[in-house]
Structure formats: structure tokens, C-alpha cells
Design a protein that fits this description.
Blueprint: E1 20-26, E2 32-38, H1 46-58, H2 70-88, E3 99-105, E4 108-114, E5 120-123, E6 126-129, H3 136-140, H4 148-153
Helix pairs in contact: 1-2
Length: about 160
């Protein structure tokens, strides 16, 4: 099995600051550790929040043997770093980020996910979405997918 990875980021058309951060490293045991975060636009410090979230994964060493159960722990390390940053700078209250991180080892894929930075699998020519967006509007529909017209027009459609 061959695993290729690449990352491209674009600031978009509405913001002046790119709030995306990513990290990729092949571990010494051949596992691939990947993380991507997208700071929440409209809130202060989205770029810093995404950087702090990804830094928790980057702090692991190439020689570290990571396992699926390590991913939530690393996500919480990033979350704590964001909370600590807000505690030291109250002007950053409300900062946040999405996070999707994956560990790929041989035929095994494990991930941790919060927000709407999606994880897809491309196998041969078929693309399959593996994660579901965590949006507030989905809680209004008790986990069911809201009708398309609601997703387009509801004032909370983009709230994570």
C-alpha cells in the first residue's frame, strides 16, 4: 500500500489572515501522523488556535510509537494549550479551531475529529467522506441531517 499526502491552504476571499494549520510526519515505525486545523473565523485568534492544536501533534517525536488511543489525548493537549492561551490573554476569549488528525499504520486508520474539517478516503477512484460535521444546527435535528433549505438559510448554519 502506498500512502501519499499533500497539503494546500488558501486564505479564501473573506479573510485577510489564513487560519489554517497542518502537520504531517512519517514516524520511525512507518506510521503516518497527520493533523489539520482551521481556526474559527469571526472569533479572535483563529490562526493561533489552529497552530496550538496542531502543535500538540507536532510535539511528538518521529521515534514515538503512537497508537489510536493517543489521538484524543493529543487533541486534549492542544485544547488545554488554547485554554491556557485565553487565560493569559482574555482578549482571545472565544478563540477556537476545528481539528482532524489521523494515524495511518499499514491497513489501519484511526482519527480524532471536531468541527467541520473533513476526513476523506480516496480508494482507487472512489472518494468517501469518513467524518461528519459537528454543527450546532445538527443538534436541533437530534443528529438527523437538516433539510437542504435549512442548511442554506438558517442563521446558525455555520455555528460549530
Amino acid at each position: 500500500m502506498t500512502l501519499d499526502f499533500n497539503a494546500v491552504s488558501h486564505v479564501g476571499h473573506k479573510r485577510a489572515v489564513n487560519e489554517d494549520s497542518w502537520f504531517a510526519r512519517r514516524q520511525d515505525d512507518g506510521a503516518l501522523l497527520l493533523a489539520v486545523a482551521d481556526g474559527m473565523g469571526g472569533a479572535p485568534g483563529g490562526d493561533q488556535a489552529s497552530s496550538l492544536a496542531v502543535a500538540a501533534f507536532a510535539a511528538t517525536g518521529a521515534g514515538d510509537s503512537l497508537f489510536p488511543h493517543d489521538l484524543p489525548r493529543l487533541a486534549m493537549v492542544g485544547h488545554k494549550a488554547i485554554l491556557d492561551h485565553v487565560a493569559s490573554d482574555p482578549g482571545m476569549k472565544g478563540m477556537g479551531t476545528t481539528l482532524t488528525a489521523a494515524l495511518v499504520r499499514k491497513e489501519e486508520l484511526a482519527w480524532v475529529h471536531i468541527g467541520d474539517s473533513r476526513l476523506y478516503r480516496l480508494r482507487k477512484t472512489k472518494l468517501r467522506q469518513l467524518t461528519n460535521d459537528h454543527r450546532f444546527i445538527h443538534t436541533l435535528y437530534m443528529g438527523d441531517k437538516p433539510p437542504p433549505e435549512i442548511l442554506r438559510r438558517h442563521p446558525l448554519r455555520n455555528r460549530l
